[in-house]
Design goal:
By secondary structure, this protein is of the alpha+beta class. The protein has twelve helices and four strands; from the N terminus they run ααβααβαααβαβαααα. A four-stranded antiparallel beta sheet has the order 1-2-4-3, with helices on both faces. It is globular, with a radius of gyration of 20 Å.
């Protein structure tokens, strides 16, 4: 155990922040930590848009499903998969890079690079005593998000990161059991223990919700997932991604 591991294991999403902006130094440190993340073949296929403008934050909150913590936080970061600069690199160096940029492989590279950078930023922020909350709701209406943030082709805002001084200390949500996530040497496909692990996890999650809500809620994890996955949401995404010049080959 060390301070880094303690910080990671103490993670919880914060959805209420003090009315206290981050300093420019804090913002720079968080972004530099994001940039220190591993990146596939040194491609660095992401950009980060910091949003300070109150009206833009208000609009992003609306576009994200009226999540108040998108508007009210210390600083709001938008993490974007970005091959705009790489298209310019092709022009600069006189190379045809478009087929590569439009490949599914490079689409995956951009997603992974962006996620790695964001998680570095999140851990850095939490190590500074700040709280964070990822905002996937930005993908509810990406055309409007892109217009608001003046995002060019070959750039896709993937999610936001609300950062600030916590005004709450929520309980940590229990994660899946270690044995359910970690497989040794090969993927364990034995159905019976797999289902047993899920049921035990359901019991853990139900107890968590019951304690948290004084008995008003007893959700199971599999029930939540089945309900969520049975609904089709953001089905415009394939067309939008291809329109941005990603995942075409």
């Amino acid at each position: 155990m060390n301070p880094v591991i303690e910080t990671i294991l103490q993670h919880r999403s914060i959805r209420r922040f003090e009315n206290r902006p981050l300093t420019d130094e804090q913002i720079r440190t968080i972004v530099e930590c994001a940039q220190a993340a591993s990146t596939s073949s040194y491609i660095q296929a992401y950009s980060i848009i910091g949003v300070k403008d109150p009206e833009k934050k208000r609009k992003l909150a609306e576009l994200s499903g009226n999540q108040s913590y998108v508007e009210h936080n210390g600083h709001f970061f938008v993490f974007c998969a970005d091959f705009h600069r790489h298209e310019l690199i092709g022009e600069l160096e006189g190379k045809d890079v478009i087929p590569s940029l439009e490949s599914t492989e490079k689409f995956m590279v951009a997603l992974i690079d962006t996620a790695l950078a964001a998680q570095n930023a999140a851990i850095a922020a939490e190590s500074m005593g700040l709280g964070i909350c990822y905002i996937g709701g930005l993908r509810n209406n990406l055309p409007d998000v892109c217009a608001l943030l003046n995002v060019p082709k070959r750039v896709i805002p993937l999610f936001g990161l609300a950062v600030g001084y916590p005004a709450q200390t929520p309980d940590r949500k229990p994660r899946l059991p270690f044995a359910h996530v970690y497989h040794e040497d090969e993927y364990n496909q034995d159905r019976a223990p797999f289902l047993e692990q899920l049921q035990r996890y359901n019991d853990t999650v139900s107890a968590y919700y019951e304690q948290r809500t004084n008995g008003r809620r007893r959700d199971t994890w599999t029930g939540q997932m089945a309900d969520m996955l049975s609904r089709s949401v953001r089905m415009y995404m394939k067309e939008f991604v291809e329109g941005k010049g990603f995942n075409l080959r």
